[in-house]
Design a protein that fits this description.
Strand order of the largest sheet: 1-6-2-4-5
Number of helices: 21
Mean pLDDT: 92
CATH class of the largest domain: Alpha Beta
Largest sheet: 5 strands, mixed
CATH superfamily of the largest domain: Metal-dependent hydrolases
Shape: globular
């Protein structure tokens, strides 16, 4: 990809030509004009000649693909950055490897007040168990250490960190020599993250946003709240995103009730939403279920943090404040509590008002036909993470171990949601899973449960336009005249149309269908490589050497 070397800003007029432009305005477009941060025109190579002399810059795509930039609809930016810059245990293949990584990290960080790590998953280790406190005390040399599980709903810690949290042994979720959950986990996490300096925090946020831009992500939705981050973390991120070039950041603050809604407005959040926890996670046995887990001797149905009445009160408070509401709900009982609560709120404030707000449910993994129908009825957006299915799905995956294979096959029902007319927005929940937009699209298109697969086109839309729609914007996330010029340029192979039903795929490749192609995402094929990311007409990433 070559260009005339002139300074670029969001106010310059740029012509991109000689590539493939993914646009519903013209399924055969090879060129695009950007002016004042918006798409001004898309069309054919021949028509591009008319613009060539009147623009400030010409970008010769040399066959590259131009698509809308991705939106990652669920991110914890500081946590994602700390995973990039700190101790990443996702690469540990066993408990012994994890302890070696802890020792190496402790030796390399002699001045850190608290050692931080993330990403361990004992379900993938031959040992099948997390480290004991004694093992961590030895590996960390007696220093305070916090290691969050891959789902961020439990953690293992050292004795020295517990000593910094008076009364933690009396908190719900504390166990003497097992991962901490619930209130105990929240308390130690607050202590650990409180040791991160403002400079360390800003560095982590920049690292995460740089990684996002390098992957063609133009927007991220920060899902914050008092039990998962801090007000300073949240407002600092919003300031950094406003002051420095990079992906857009849409902030959500998850704190319940009228006080939480007021706090969200005060902090500059788009909504009182995001990780407002109704329950926990399946991996940590804290997702709230109708029927007990199958892999624990004590049984149990997980943790319920908010009731249907709490949900109703929160949605009503959001309606009065004119803010979007949203909830973290994974287990089927938690999702039922959300839909029952939204129904009660609709009875109070009116169905039209509820639907217009586009309230969100994060994760929404265990749904029933009744809750899918309720999502459609109330206009709820399912903000979901297809990488969860790729990582934990299948008849021998973590979901099947926790729930049994039959229940596990019902999880993450993307096809059922789309058939019901439920809007989808895709994200990563990074650092739970890595920022990886094309991998996310692939995971949805090649879902481990064949009946829940969606077309690549539908998955791509959920990861681009779907994220914008989840914030109330219908005019973005697509390359048509008037839309924000948020786009990415890709080096990729032949463009194809992939759908679960081969008859649909065959028709869609017919020129008469007018269906623009997308990269071949068949498992095992190379994913597209991002060459450039542009946000509001401003370049925020260029791959070195391009």
């Amino acid at each position: 990809m070559s260009e005339r070397t002139t300074p670029e800003s969001g106010h310059r007029t740029v012509l991109l030509r000689g590539g493939e432009v993914h646009s519903p305005a013209d399924p055969f477009a090879t060129a695009m004009v950007v002016e004042r941060g918006h798409v001004a025109w898309v069309g054919s190579e021949g028509a591009a000649d008319a613009f060539a002399d009147g623009v400030d810059e010409v970008v010769h795509l040399e066959g590259a693909l131009v698509t809308p930039a991705f939106t990652d609809a669920h991110v914890h930016t500081t946590g994602a950055g700390l995973a990039l810059t700190g101790l990443d245990l996702s690469r540990a293949g066993s408990l012994a490897e994890a302890l070696v990584l802890v020792r190496e990290h402790a030796a390399a960080r002699p001045d850190d007040r608290v050692l931080l790590g993330h990403g361990w998953d004992a379900a993938r280790w031959p040992d099948g168990r997390p480290p004991t406190r004694a093992e961590l005390d030895e590996a960390a040399g007696g220093r305070p250490l916090y290691l969050s599980r891959v789902d961020v709903h439990s953690a293992v810690v050292t004795t020295a960190l517990l000593d910094l949290v008076p009364g933690v042994a009396d908190a719900a979720g504390f166990r003497a020599d097992a991962p901490l959950t619930a209130d105990a986990h929240h308390a130690v996490r607050e202590a650990a993250h409180g040791a991160v300096t403002p400079l360390q925090r800003a560095a982590a946020q920049r690292a995460a946003l740089r990684r996002a831009a390098s992957l063609g992500i133009g927007s991220v939705h920060e899902c914050a709240g008092p039990t998962i981050s801090s007000e300073d973390d949240f407002t600092g991120l919003l300031r950094l995103a406003a002051d420095e070039p990079g992906p857009r950041v849409v902030g959500y603050w998850g704190e319940p009730g009228a006080e939480g809604v007021a706090r969200a407005r005060e902090l500059g959040a788009r909504g009182a939403a995001g990780d407002l926890f109704v329950d926990g996670s399946l991996g940590s046995h804290t997702a709230w279920l109708h029927e007990p887990y199958e892999d624990t001797d004590a049984g149990g149905t997980g943790n319920a943090y908010l009731s249907a009445a709490d949900v109703a009160d929160h949605v009503a408070a959001c309606a009065e404040a004119g803010l979007q509401a949203g909830f973290h709900a994974i287990g089927d009982a938690a999702v039922t509590a959300v839909t029952d609560g939204v129904r009660a709120a609709a009875d109070k404030v009116g169905l039209a008002r509820v639907r217009a707000a586009r309230h969100r449910v994060e994760h929404a993994e265990m749904l029933t036909p009744e809750t899918v129908a309720a999502f459609a009825e109330f206009g709820l957006t399912a903000s979901v993470q297809p990488a969860f299915d790729a990582l934990w799905g299948g008849d021998d995956g973590m979901y099947a171990r926790r729930l049994g294979a039959e229940r596990a096959r019902t999880l993450n029902p993307y096809a059922a949601l789309l058939r019901a007319g439920v809007p989808l927005a895709f994200g990563s929940d990074s650092p739970v899973t890595p920022l990886d937009p094309w991998g996310t699209v692939r995971a949805a298109a090649f879902h481990r449960t064949a009946g829940q697969r969606v077309s690549v086109r539908a998955a791509f839309t959920a990861h681009t336009r779907g994220g914008w729609r989840a914030t109330g914007r219908d005019d973005a996330g697509v390359l048509v005249p008037g839309a924000p010029a948020d786009y990415a340029v890709w080096r990729t192979g032949e463009l194809v149309v992939q759908a679960p039903d081969d008859r649909v795929a065959r028709w869609s490749t017919d020129p008469r269908s007018g269906t623009p192609g997308l990269p071949d995402l068949t498992p095992g094929t190379e994913l597209p490589v991002c060459l450039r990311t542009v946000v509001a007409g401003e370049t925020v990433f260029v791959r070195p050497g391009e």
